[in-house]
Structures are given as C-alpha cells and as structure tokens.
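Model it.
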Amino acid sequence: MNRVAAIFTLILAFAYSAEAEALYKCKGAGMFDTPVWTNTPCKSKSDILETRNLRVYPPVQKPEVKTEEKPAAKEHGDLTAEKAKELISSKKLAVGMSRKDVLHSWGKPDETDSSLTAEGEFEVLIYHRGSKKSQFVFINEQGLLSNVKAVNPNASKAEEKQDNKKP
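Modeled.
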C-alpha cells in the first residue's frame, strides 16, 4: 500500500514539477524506504536525500503553419455574366471561363485526365469531335479554363507540323 502511495506521489510530483522551482527527494515511509520525489519540502531536514533546482521554461509555442488556399473561382471566372451567357449559347469557349461554364457550353467531356506542369496541376477535359479532331480543355487549379488544344489523332507528325505552320 505504501509503495502505491509512493508511486502516486511520484506521479503527482512530476505532474506539478513544471510549475515548481525545486524538487525534493525524500525518504519514503515503509518497509523498503523507497525514496519519493516531491515539489514540497520533506517533513524533516533529515529526510531530504537530494534537492534539484528546476528551470522554468516558457511554454512551447507552435509555429503558425500557413496553408496556401486556392482562390475561389468566381461564378463565371474572369468573364462577365453576359459574356459567359453569350459564349454558352453559341457553344464557344474562352480563356478565363469557369469550369462550370465550360460544361454548360460543351457538355460532359468524353474523357477526363490530369496534367502536371511548371505552372501547376491541370484537369484535362477531352472532347472527341468525330474522327478528325479531339479537343483538350485545360482547367487550372483555380477552376478556370487556361488552354484549349485540338489534336488530330489520325494525322501523322508531318501533317501536324504543316498545320502548325499555317497562320
């Protein structure tokens, strides 16, 4: 029983030791005279086995972690509501258009993919327009259309180079 009391006292001593300025190692009462650490002086000076002065450290402050939040895309991206409605009604796209407006204009893509570049991560919406061309619509991290690329899957590399040279 005395041993349990000594352990309990030891636990309490360490729990409050952060606020104390000194710890005292006192002779324990009981059969085995197990020493006990406490933050209060022992009953008599002859019971003190050891004394330690403690440093009181200031509480550790956690550094502020700044997370970069993506700016929320406006409802119509960089476009006005009138311009977005005009483009949607004519089934056209424009750089700066919101992802939502792209889907309203061209509908659900045939495929989706992702791309990682130096500018960031992009969602790629792929629209197959017959057997001649596929269009890749790049949506940036802010949810805005940043690029549209048309690719002819049946063309050879030489034909693609000639198409790129044409004004």
